[in-house]
Design brief:
globular; 6-stranded parallel β-sheet; alpha/beta; Rossmann fold; 18 helices; about 375 residues; 2 domains
C-alpha cells in the first residue's frame, strides 16, 4: 500500500483479541499515519479508536445466544458496514468473532480498494468446515495464531500467515511480587479459578466452580481460591455470584499473577487454558453449555479434544470435563492427578512456547501492507 495515511476499519469483541489487534496496529503505525474506525476494546481505543458501540455487545457464545440477539447484532453490523464505506477504509481487520465479521468481509469485498484481513482464524479446522468457501471468497488474508491452522489453509489454497501466539514469551511473575501486591501468605496454597471472560460463561460455570470450592475446602483449609476478572464489569458479575468469604479472593486484571502463584487451575475452556499451561499451572479444563448448544456442536466437531493445550500437544494431557461430566465431584477427583502432572509441567510449558512461536507482529504487519 503506497499511501502513507491509512484508514483502517476494525471489529473486535473480546479482551484477548483487543490485545492482539492493538499489537498489530502498533506495528502498522510505525511507518504509516493511521485513522481507526469501528469497534474495539480498551487497548485498541488507546491507539485512537472511538468505538461505534461498546465492544462487550459482541461477547456472545454458543448457537442460541446469537439467535436471541440477532436483531441487535444485525443493526450493529449494518451500522459498521455503512461507516466503513463512508470512510472509504483501506484495510478491514476482523478480529475473532468470525460469524459476525464474515458478513462485513462479504460487503467490503465489493470495494476493490479495501483489503480484508481476519486476525484469529475461525475454528474451521474443528467444525463447520464448509465455512472455508466463504473464507476463501471474501477474506484476502487470514492471520493464524497456530501453525496447524496455517497448514490447514495452505492445503485449502487460501492465503494465510502464521503470526504465532503472544503466550510464547509468557513468564511467571515471582511469588514475592504477587504476594506483596495482594497480601498473600507464604504459608498458604493457591488455586486459580477461571470461570470465563463472558458474562454468559460466568453464569454457567462459576456456580459449578463454587460448588467445587465448597467441597475442596472441607479437607484443605490451607488453600485460597483466586478468581481473576478481566474488567470491572466482570468483577461485579463475579462478586454478585461468589460468596464473600476469607478463602476466596477476586481481583481485576490479575490472571497472570494469580496463575503464577497457583498450584493448578480450574478453567473454562478457552484461551485461559493455554495461558495457564504455559505458565506451568496445570489446568483442569471444564466446559458446560446449554443442552441444545451442546447437542448441535458435539455433532459438528471434527476433533477429539476441546482444550487448546491438548489440541496443540496432540494428546489428552490435561483433564477435560465436558458437559455432563463437568461437575464439582469430577473436578475434585481430577485434582488428585495434578501432583503427578506438576513434576513435568516445566518441560510441557517449554514445549508449548516452542509450538506458539511464529512470524511475529512486525513481519505480519509488513506483509499486510504489501497486499
Amino acid at each position: 500500500m503506497s499511501s502513507n495515511h491509512l484508514r483502517i476499519g476494525v471489529v473486535c469483541g473480546e479482551h484477548s483479541g483487543d490485545r492482539l489487534g492493538a499489537n498489530l496496529i502498533k506495528e502498522i503505525k510505525k511507518n504509516h499515519n493511521v485513522t481507526l474506525y469501528g469497534v474495539g476494546g480498551p487497548e485498541i481505543e488507546k491507539l485512537g479508536l472511538d468505538s461505534d458501540f461498546n465492544f462487550n455487545d459482541l461477547q456472545i457464545m454458543g448457537l442460541i445466544e446469537p439467535i436471541i440477539k440477532y436483531k441487535s447484532l444485525s443493526r450493529k453490523r449494518k451500522s459498521l458496514i455503512r461507516l466503513f464505506k463512508e470512510k472509504k477504509i483501506d484495510i478491514f481487520i476482523g478480529i475473532d468473532s468470525p460469524d459476525f465479521n464474515i458478513s462485513i468481509h462479504k460487503e467490503l469485498k465489493k470495494i476493490k480498494t479495501c483489503k480484508n484481513i481476519q486476525l484469529v482464524s475461525p475454528s474451521v479446522w474443528a467444525w463447520r468446515q464448509n465455512r472455508i468457501k466463504s473464507i476463501k471468497k471474501y477474506i484476502d488474508l487470514t492471520v493464524c495464531l497456530f501453525k496447524f491452522e496455517h497448514d490447514f489453509y495452505q492445503k485449502e489454497h487460501h492465503k494465510s500467515l502464521h503470526l504465532g501466539h503472544p503466550f510464547n514469551s509468557l513468564e511467571k511473575i515471582p511469588f514475592d511480587d504477587v504476594a506483596k501486591k495482594y497480601e498473600l501468605g507464604k504459608n498458604k496454597k493457591y488455586i486459580s479459578i477461571l470461570p470465563g471472560s463472558r458474562e454468559s460463561e460466568i453464569e454457567n460455570m462459576l456456580p459449578i466452580f463454587l460448588d467445587f470450592i465448597k467441597r475442596h475446602s472441607i479437607n484443605n483449609k490451607d488453600f485460597i481460591y483466586l478468581i481473576p476478572a478481566s474488567d470491572k464489569r466482570l468483577y461485579e458479575k463475579i462478586r454478585r455470584i461468589a460468596p464473600k468469604q476469607d478463602n476466596i479472593l477476586i481481583k481485576e486484571n490479575s490472571m497472570r499473577e494469580f496463575l503464577s502463584v497457583s498450584e493448578f487451575s480450574i478453567v473454562t475452556s478457552g484461551t485461559a487454558t493455554l495461558e495457564s499451561a504455559v505458565l506451568g499451572c496445570p489446568p483442569i479444563i471444564c466446559y458446560k453449555t446449554n443442552p441444545i448448544n451442546y447437542f448441535i456442536i458435539s455433532r459438528m466437531l471434527k476433533i477429539r479434544n476441546v482444550g487448546l493445550p491438548n489440541i496443540l500437544l496432540g494428546s489428552n494431557y490435561f483433564t477435560e470435563l465436558i458437559q455432563k461430566n463437568c461437575h464439582e465431584v469430577n473436578i475434585l477427583n481430577a485434582t488428585t492427578t495434578i501432583q503427578n502432572m506438576m513434576l513435568d509441567n516445566i518441560s510441557i510449558s517449554d514445549k508449548l512456547r516452542s509450538i506458539l512461536t511464529g512470524d511475529g507482529f512486525e513481519s505480519v504487519a509488513n506483509k499486510i501492507l504489501e497486499l
